[in-house]
Amino acid sequence: MSALEQGMGLALAGLRRVASSDLVDRYGQRERLERVIRSGVRQGFGAATTAARGFKMVTPTRSQPVRQEPRAPKLFDLTPSEEQQMLVAMFDEVAAEVLRPAGRCADDVAAAPAEVMAQLNELGLLSLGVPSELGGVLDERSAVLSVLAASSLAHGDPGLTVAALAPAAVANLLSLYGTAGQQERWLTAFTGEDAPVASFAMMEPRALFDPTVLRTTARREGDGFVLDGLKSMVARVADAELFVVAAELEGSGPALFMVEGGVAGVTQRVEPTMGVRAAAFGELQLVGVRLDADALLADGSAEVYSEVIARSRIAWCAVAIGAAQATLDLLIPYVKQRTAFGEPIAYRQAVAFTISDIAIELEGMRLATWRAASLADRGKPFAQEAAIARQLVAAHGKQIGSDGVQLLGGHGFVKEYPVERWYRDLTGAGLAEGVLLV
Exposure string (b/e) for 345-371, b if CB count within 10 Å is 16 or more? Predict the structure, then answer.
């Protein structure tokens, strides 16, 4: 059996567990679900908010790190393969049956239900980017597959999708750039049943944030490093046991560091945002945090850091595509059924043209994102294409969300319909840096 077939078997087995669970039935009991979610929310600063898992320094059993081979066709082709289409169909079903019903309540309390996160982990999301030699399910890596998966899940709910994929970003970083020692120390934990909650912390709390200009600093001290600074929009911050932190390395430039939750000097605080609230964003404060020499990813390579920014932006574009598609899929039947002055409002030229514009801009966002991901898989430069996709998402994603609210009229202004939530989520997708990675 091939690695891909093993991955499909794992994913389908997870889907059967989702279908047989009574979790979906309980979404009709809103009060009970809220109690479940609220019990997992932690508020306020606390240096000991997360018990340290105890990642230990290890002596690598292999001299070289393990990498997945890029999965890319020799010819430029954006058509999803048969295997990718099968996985997308599975994620579509999970998005509709699990994420969509849970989205509203998760947004209200700004937290992701632990049961939903557990169900998604069972589908193998965290191990898609882990080489099979280290316990993953695929020998080949595919940014296109990551984009398809994120878009499908975000069609159900963008916030829960970000919450589920945030730990996968850390696994992807270790898989792509980690040394053999770093992989055995941290990456292997993501393939077990008790996978750690992890988060990629890049953003900082200031206007017009530039990921290449960081105020969080790292200085060398002895054989290790000392980090100081404040990071914002850190997904699932209260529960996270492991972070990848972007910091300005003294005398070098922006670099990425592995930081374990619960160590001295690390403080985690929930700080809900306007959109993507289910991701349970918050702040990560670092005061004199001491790290060993093994904490630095990719030797502080500037080239790697630039590539990470581009891969993160592609991931956010994928989430925006899912939310924008969900908006369009809700609007089309709505404008056909909603009547005014004796006829469906879809007959109005202004409404029809707005729907058409949404569909056109959505296709542009989708194709630009797929192109950037495809170039990444083929080992070609893709930073410019990722920037183009991000600009399209920032400009048109928010407009699609706004048009959705406007076309629903009064219904767009209330929480009975999810378009107001998608509008907020699409706004955030055009601003965020880090958090996700393909």
Answer: bbeeeebeebbeebbebbeebbebbbb
Residue type, 83: E
pTM of the model: 0.85
- Residue 15 clears pLDDT 60, i.e. is over it: no
Q: How far is 175 from 210, CA to CA, in rounded Å?
A: 25
Instruction: Give the span between the Cα atoms of 326 and 438, in whole angstroms.
Output: 21
Structure tokens at 58: 């290890």
Contact 241, 198 (CB under 8 A): yes
pLDDT digits (tens, 9 = 90+) for 246-305: 999 999 999 999 999 989 999 999 999 999 999 999 999 999 999 999 999 999 999 999
Nearest CA among 26, 48, 49 for reference residue 270 = 49
Cα angle: 51, vertex 52, 58; to 5 degrees: 160
According to DSSP, the residues that pair with 429 across neighbouring strands are none
Rounded average pLDDT over 186-205? 91
The whole-angstrom separation of Cα 254 and Cα 16 is 44
Cα separation, 10 vs 284, in Å, equals 34
The DSSP line for 251-267 is TTEEEEEEEETTSTTEE
What digits encode the pLDDT tens for the residues 119-145? 898 888 887 878 878 887 777 788 999
DSSP H or E segment with residue 334 = helix 302-337
> Identity (one letter) of the amino acid at 330?
L
Instruction: For residues 170 and 173, give the distance between their C-alpha atoms in angstroms, rounded to a whole number.
Output: 5
Contact 396/364 with Cβ under 8 angstroms? yes
Predicted confidence (pLDDT) per residue in 140-156, tens digit: 788 999 999 999 999 99
* pLDDT for res 56: 66
Which helix (H) or strand (E) element contains residue 400?
A: helix 398-407
- β-pairing verdict for 253-260 and 242-249: antiparallel
Buried b (16+ CB within 10 A) or exposed e, 160-175: bbbbbbbbbbbbbbbb
Query: Quick one: residue 372, left, alpha or beta (phi over 0 = left, psi -120 to 50 = alpha)?
Result: alpha
Q: Could you tell me which residues are beta bridge partners of residue 266?
A: 286
